[in-house]
Design brief:
The protein contains 18 helices and no strands. It is mainly alpha-helical. Among the domains are: 115 residues; 111 residues. The longest helix is centred in the first third of the chain and has 18 residues. The chain is globular, with a radius of gyration of 21 Å. The mean pLDDT is 88.
Length: 365
């Protein structure tokens, strides 16, 4: 295994050279790269892509599943295949592709019959994350708690910490903000034992809870600390999300000018990262801030740019997003855009990634 991993380190370096659209072709030219060691090395490399270049992470994990599935039968094959599909599920979650994420979890489940309870708990936790994105909150919270108990029994504190964070974000999604904040209070004594990236994510998520509880000073402190960690670790996508939620916090306090200084460059960042759902939501937030400042004439141009992005992106929910943004554009151009319009479009867009077939039903202005 040591020899295999040593060879794999060189193979992976060669495989991942260049842009992601060259990776598959390069792999096809080198069948000798299809080893268990390469799968292990690619899985280890995934974290470096998830929060820095999410679209690269999707392609990297897709290739990893292909290699894992092609491995001959051996004592570690099933575990590696399950690992690869879990990583692919998480990469799909980050870019908002929830259907493919659930399919990846199902693939992981298929090979777990001969794998121990610890591995099963890992897949259960990933399923909880996907169910959370599908708004199946009670089921997701129960799965996360179950996985956390399993990890604690094995003495794996980092995975226990992650599972409890999953439970907390599910509680947040189901509007149980006080209970979610309580989980982070329970986890605080363990933070010093966690990787910095995990601490950054915990601070980001706790900031969401504090904001909803009206604890604006605490929320801002959480987001600022999370951004500092992300800058230090170059966690690009998480930093972008933390900036976005900081902007939303400023909007809650009617600090619209300050929010716009964050939102205006952030939309381009979301576009470059391929975080399309976040781009749509941030566009609606920008429209609300412009409306609040009486700069309604800028809203139409903003929406035109976002619509053009969705037109070329080819996403499952592009049609719905474009329809909703077109409504804002037309209302703004006609001078009839209201706060109620923006709120209804925001509600629609936020639910769209979970329900891509949802139809925008507001009447045209």
């Amino acid at each position: 295994m040591a020899d295999e991993d040593a060879a794999a380190e060189l193979y992976v370096k060669q495989l991942l050279a260049g842009s992601r659209d060259t990776w598959a072709a390069r792999l096809a030219e080198h069948p000798e790269w299809r080893t268990a060691g390469v799968v292990r090395k690619l899985i280890a490399a995934t974290d470096g892509y998830n929060f820095t270049s999410p679209l690269d992470a999707v392609e990297l994990t897709r290739i990893t599943t292909q290699i894992a599935e092609s491995l001959p039968s051996c004592s570690t094959r099933d575990s590696l295949v399950a690992d690869a599909w879990r990583e692919h599920a998480y990469a799909q979650l980050i870019v908002g592709s929830y259907g493919p994420a659930m399919e990846a979890v199902a693939h992981s489940d298929q090979v777990l019959t001969s794998v121990n309870a610890f591995e099963t708990a890992r897949t259960r936790l990933m399923r909880a994350l996907v169910l959370r994105s599908m708004e199946k909150w009670p089921e997701a919270a129960a799965m996360a708690r179950n996985a956390a108990a399993e990890f604690l029994g094995y003495g794996d504190l980092p995975k226990y910490f992650s599972a409890r964070m999953t439970e907390a974000i599910v509680l947040y999604d189901s509007s149980q903000y006080r209970q979610a904040a309580g989980v982070y209070v329970e986890l605080a004594p363990l933070q010093h034992q966690m990787p910095l990236a995990t601490i950054a994510l915990a601070l980001h998520n706790e900031g969401l809870c504090r904001r909803e509880l009206g604890e604006f000073a605490s929320a801002e402190k959480c987001f600022v600390q999370a951004i500092a960690f992300c800058d230090r670790l170059q966690l690009t996508s998480l930093r972008a999300k933390a900036h976005w939620h900081l902007a939303r916090l400023l909007m809650r306090q009617a600090r619209y000018d300050a929010a716009l200084t964050i939102l205006n460059p952030l939309r381009s960042e979301f576009e470059e990262l391929g975080m399309s759902h976040d781009l749509a939501c941030a566009s609606v937030d920008t429209a609300e801030s412009l409306l609040a400042l009486g700069e309604i004439d800028q809203v139409a141009a903003l929406c035109r740019g976002a619509i053009e992005y969705f037109r070329t992106a080819g996403l499952a929910y592009s049609t719905g997003a474009m329809t909703a943004l077109a409504y804002l554009q037309e209302a703004a151009a006609a001078g009839r855009l209201t706060v109620t319009d923006v709120a209804e479009v925001r509600t629609f867009v936020e639910r769209l990634s979970h329900r891509p077939n949802l139809i925008f039903a507001m009447m045209s202005p």
